[in-house]
Amino acid sequence: MICNWCQHEGAVEAQKTAFWELPDGTRAVEITNVPSIQCPNCEMTYIDDDIIDEIEDQFMLIDTEKLPNSFTYQQFMNQPKLLKKNYFKF
User: Fold this and answer.
1) Which CDD domains match (predicted)?
2) What is the pLDDT of residues 12-57, one digit of tens each?
3) How far apart are CA 24 and CA 15, in angstroms?
4) 46 DSSP β-pair partners
5) Is the Cβ–Cβ distance between 64 and 81 less than 8 Å?
6) Domain boundaries, the chain
7) For residues 42-59, b (16+ Cβ closer than 10 Å) or e, as one string?
8) What does the alpha-carbon distance between residue 51 and residue 58 come to, in Å, rounded to a whole number?
9) Residue ranges of the alpha helices (H) in the chain?
């Protein structure tokens, strides 16, 4: 896998913790085990844009008031959806 930051070919998949602000700005939450990319060359760890889009969409589709302060990526993605799709995405 090629690192988006330094273009090194040794980047690997990892699962890392990320902190996210809720769309309404009321609080931030901790999401553990988020699919990420880690580069041993530049030591950068980042989340691919597709995963970021999935997370952002999920926040718009679920009842965020029911979320605890910390949860896994899988628990987050398994939350019941209130909408079929993100109608706010243009």
Assistant:
1) MqsA
2) 999 999 999 999 999 999 999 999 999 999 999 999 999 999 999 9
3) 26
4) 37
5) no
6) 12-77
7) eeeebbeeebeebbebbb
8) 10
9) 49-61, 73-77
